[in-house]
Design goal:
The protein has about 290 residues and is α+β, with helices and mostly antiparallel strands. About 50% of the residues lie in helices and about 15% in strands. The strands form two sheets. It has a six-stranded antiparallel beta sheet. A hairpin with a 5-residue loop joins strand 4 (about 30-35) and strand 5 (about 40-45). The protein is globular, with a radius of gyration of 20 Å.
């Protein structure tokens, strides 16, 4: 089990993620958009969402102060030893049901109770009293019981369950985003003809594969702008896979509303404000139990 605080301003375009763990998330500030099938759901502070095992999903900021808290939970924590009645009756069917990809927790009743449980889990990870791991486990077990009892098909956002190749394509793009990537390469990984691959990718993710690739390159460049203050725009453009600096600047501005120079100044100003206020990194970021 792992818990993380994510400040989306640091992830300039948000991100696409997937993991074998089940995930419960609580929006703790601003507004975000979450999607597992192209059509995004807009969430505000104190809303939550559930992501099933192995489901590629997108989270992107809709405001400058967007942030959220998430807990990744291994199925074994919830169901015990392999073959247990608890696991076979409840958890295995949940993890293997491709129709149950993303549940949005924005209503009253059981949804609000799960969000309250996530607030409690977040507080436990921050304060870390003696035995907090046991307390977190108990709260999460209750939250998943409420989730299983309360979920309705209309609250679940299903993607294309036939796109079993999507994780392979996304992993390839993540690992080769600075290189030249052809449509034939991607279609080959998916085992589809190029035209069908393009349709399936956009239907599932909400944008084209090359828009996703460009987003990856811009996000990588944003990390370099933040972490390599000595790097020139020309160098960043080249190392992130853009053909020219002008092409890079245009794509960065199109996707963020800022030039790379403006973005770098914004980060510098944020850092100066944090130093003045004596702000500290959130203590729960990256904690595991």
């Amino acid at each position: 089990m792992a818990a993380y605080e994510t400040v989306l301003r640091k992830n300039v375009l948000g991100f696409v993620d997937w993991h074998e763990e089940l995930q419960l998330c609580l929006v703790t500030g601003g507004r975000v958009e979450v999607s597992a099938a192209g059509a995004g759901e807009q969430l505000e502070a104190e809303d939550g969402f559930f992501v099933n095992s192995g489901v590629p999903h997108t989270v992107r900021p809709l405001s400058a102060d967007a942030e959220y808290f998430c807990v990744n939970v291994r199925a074994s924590l919830l169901c015990g030893p392999p073959g247990s009645a608890l696991g076979m009756r409840y958890i295995v069917p949940l993890c293997t049901d491709k129709g149950m990809r993303l549940a949005i927790l924005t209503g009253e009743g059981w949804q609000k109770e799960i969000c309250r449980a996530l607030k409690k889990v977040r507080r436990l990870f921050i304060e870390q009293p003696h035995g907090f791991e046991l307390a977190v486990t108990g709260v999460l077990l209750e939250a998943f019981q409420q989730l299983l009892a309360g979920m309705e098909p209309k609250r679940l956002k299903g993607g294309d369950p036939g796109c079993v190749w999507m994780k392979d394509v996304l992993e390839f793009l993540n690992g080769h985003c600075s290189e030249k990537v052809s449509l034939a390469q991607l279609a080959g990984i998916a085992g589809l003809c190029p035209s069908e691959f393009c349709r399936a990718f956009k239907r599932t993710m909400g944008y084209t594969a090359f828009d996703y690739l460009c987003n990856l390159r811009v996000s990588k460049s944003a990390e370099m702008l933040a972490g390599c203050p000595e790097a020139t725009v020309n160098r960043i453009a080249y190392e992130c896979g853009f053909s020219t600096a002008s092409a890079y600047i245009g794509q960065f501005r199109r996707r963020t509303g800022l030039t790379p120079g403006q973005y770098r100044r914004m980060l510098r100003q944020d850092a100066e404000k944090m130093v003045k206020k004596g702000a500290e990194k959130p203590p729960s970021a990256g904690k595991e139990a």
